[in-house]
Amino acid sequence: MVSKNVQDLMEKMTIQEKIGQLIQLSADFFQGDNVAITGPLKEAHLGEAALYSAGSVLGISGAQTVRKVQKNYLKHSRLGIPLLFMADVVHGYKTIFPIPLALGASFDPQVMKTASATAAKESAAGGVHVTFAPMVDLVRDPRWGRVMESTGEDPYLNSVMAKAAVTGFQGTLPLDQNHIAACVKHFAAYGAPEAGREYNTVDISEWRFREQYLPAYAAAIEAQALLVMTSFNTLFGVPATVNQHLMRDILRDELQFHGVLISDWDAIGEIIHHGVAGDLQHAADLALKAGVDIDMMSFAYAKYLAKAASLDPQIEQLINESAQRILILKEQLGLFTDPYRGLSTERETEATLTTENLDAAQAAAEQSMVLLKNSHHTLPLNTATAISLVGPVADTGDILGSWSWQGDPDQTETIADALAKQFSNFTVMPGTQYHHVQFSKLNDAVNASRQQETIVAVLGLPASESGEATSMTDITLPAEQLTLLRGLAQLNKPLVTIVITGRPLDLTEVDALSDAVLLAWFPGSRGGAAIANVLSGRVDPSGRLPMTFPRNIGQVPIYYNAYNTGRPISGTPADDENKYLSKYIDAANSPLYPFGFGLSYGDFTITDWTLSQHNVTPDQPLTIQATIHNSADHAGTTVVQLYTHQQVGETVQPVKQLQAFKKVSLGADQTQTITLTVPYDQLSTIHSDLHRSTDQGDYTVMLGFDSTCTASQPFTVAHQ
Ligand code: GLC
Description:
Elements: H1 4-12, H2 15-21, E1 23-26, H3 40-43, H4 48-53, E2 56-58, H5 63-75, E3 84-87, H6 100-105, H7 109-125, E4 130-131, H8 155-170, E5 181-187, H9 206-222, E6 227-230, E7 234-235, E8 238-239, H10 244-254, E9 260-262, H11 271-274, H12 280-290, E10 295-296, H13 300-311, H14 313-332, H15 345-351, H16 355-368, E11 370-374, E12 387-390, H17 415-420, E13 426-429, H18 439-450, E14 454-460, H19 479-489, E15 495-500, H20 508-513, E16 516-519, H21 527-536, H22 574-577, E17 604-611, E18 615-616, E19 622-630, E20 636-646, E21 657-666, E22 671-678, E23 685-686, E24 692-693, E25 697-704, E26 712-717
Parallel strand pairs: 1-2, 1-10, 2-3, 3-4, 4-5, 5-6, 6-9, 12-13, 12-14, 14-15, 15-16, 18-26
Antiparallel strand pairs: 7-8, 11-16, 17-19, 19-22, 20-21, 20-25, 23-24, 25-26
Bound molecules: alpha-D-glucopyranose (GLC).
């Protein structure tokens, strides 16, 4: 339903003013006291009119700054249509939460929802109206740097997390002033670039796209995400940003998305490089016809739509539709009532970097760390233990990760400083930088460690080697860090390795050299304190892998919900006798650490599990009751995971597919019974006609603590 206010504005607006709403400019166009006539506007060959008719800006925040820019903008706006402020508030604004891949590892949607809601409250107080998040691209290739922004390789986990993120950012509609509009991205399948090379071709079948990649976008849209962002890549042979099948048939018609579709940065201009537009005018035409409402920084709409509209009524109609969707978004944000959304410096100060927010970021970090190895119960450490803390990430605030925009590494407590608050006797000796070792310093670190009981090495990559435009062909730790680790391992002392990373790495040698391996991701503003609490045992590590960790890069892409092939291995010695199987001659098929894997300080078993009935119908979901026991002498947390397999399908089916999970915390020797349900529709799959439906037949349900679980029971599915 279009409000009278929007209808009135549409009637009053000139075609140029409507086109203005479709233009997004970057912050530098609005910086400084005067408009950027000499700089960006001139370079873009745009006049001042373009500045004051642009519908939105990206990258400006701060209560005072936003107020000033909005006030100046409204002075030049003939109809008083407020400017829309958008930004990349991905895993925090000033209080930085762990990266989204880590939030996925929490296997707790409430953690994601809290992170997004906190980011919304802080950034709304900073004048942000729309965030370019959540990124829900399914990822299976650690060579691609943006895996850090995703919640991983699984369609179900990604869908659960996408819904939680949108609900956290937006709250319940209509938006209140502590919430912001979510822009789910990147539509679509940007996470599948060939060879993991950034911006590279994506060429997957529509069947696979619908089966694996589409569900999380659909979940975000079902959760009422108000915007969608197009992706840079091609899909089905056509660049996504001008792909009418993707944007009109699937996004608008099938998913019933009626919100604002924004291009990624200059994605419209890049259609020329893709070889699908002859020039910028052609690209503008294609993008508008595909339904792209806002042109982010290609200037194609600014330069060519007015002329196109004068020649073609269809173009004018499309401009009207886009302008109206943008005005409706501004209305949903309450901007026509209050263009400042209650902005004040006092409110911004009160809302940001509060103890509550920082505690929430710490709790998220504690919930997302993954204990990958813990031989001889090396962890947790007694706080009286004499520790040698070494490695390039031991004493730096560079633990916020990419897309932590307003976060400040210089104001971030280091792991060393956090440990010092709990461990009374430890030395700190980085020993090496990320990539450059001075052997004297390396030797100092090894020698300093001789005097201590236990060594804690903090290794990994800087935030600058994670995120957009950071594809890598080698996912092992830098050679210098491995040299340091080898030197430390020769001391034959308990060796704990903490890994700070935004992507799965080849940790094969790290695993062999270390007694314990703790994956801390980029843990955010309170990551140091969270790591200290896990090392000391105050907190039980409960993260589980949202993405498979390969033995080596040669296995990539490797993911748990793969298809059986016609020559599967059996996992028995017989495999060695038979050469003609789907395997390698130089490595195992299995990963180093599988999806869903993670250890805890507890000792958990599933003592009993039953199905409420063995026949699932549209009215009878699959319902499992399971009794979990913690036999350890201290509390712990685990994640119970339910997978299913369809024995026979019209198309091939994954050997197992995650369908439900539940995080369970138990005290020493405590038992708890949980219930997990899987609705009939959730068992649906994509058929060769590309339609989704649930097949009747025989299925298997598996229950365990990671994707290698084998305990199974049969069930059947019937249509009634
Ligand atoms: C970048 C990213 C996108 C981001 C946008 C605005 O290129 O692809 O995720 O939201 O530009 O910063």
